[in-house]
Amino acid sequence: MIENSFLQKVEEHKGIIYKMINLYADDDEDRKDLYQEIIFQSWSAYARFKGDAKFSTWLYKISLNVSLSFLSKKKKQNHITTINPDDYRFESPELPERADWLYRCIRKLTDVDRSIIMLHLDGFDNTEISEMIGLSRNNTNVKLHRIKQQLASLLTGK
Length: 158
What we know:
single chain; mainly alpha; Arc Repressor Mutant, subunit A; 2 domains; 8 helices; 0% strand; globular
């Protein structure tokens, strides 16, 4: 019963996971690994989910933390491991060309800036973003303003 509830909620909010993996993984193999790690970590923590926050907020925080941890490990990794693609059921949704372009521009931002802009684009207010990221609200406001300017510059090529 708990497993069904978890799977249903993840299915309803899988877009959150896809956004994170598209921002923090460079290729399909890394996306598969990151997807599995997010699901695993979410399932491991689900028994402690008390519903104090929305499930989407809870999943976002886990996805973000796992993604940042994954990225950190990936940067430290000195060797390549071979993965059998047939072992996975991951299917990344195709992005429209404009969305793909936006993702490419966002991926040029720092890790924290990527997180802030994605949370903003997903409709979280600055107070929620600052709580999730661990910054003051003022710092989040300033960073968000600068991120928007930087993205505008990247998108227009100026």
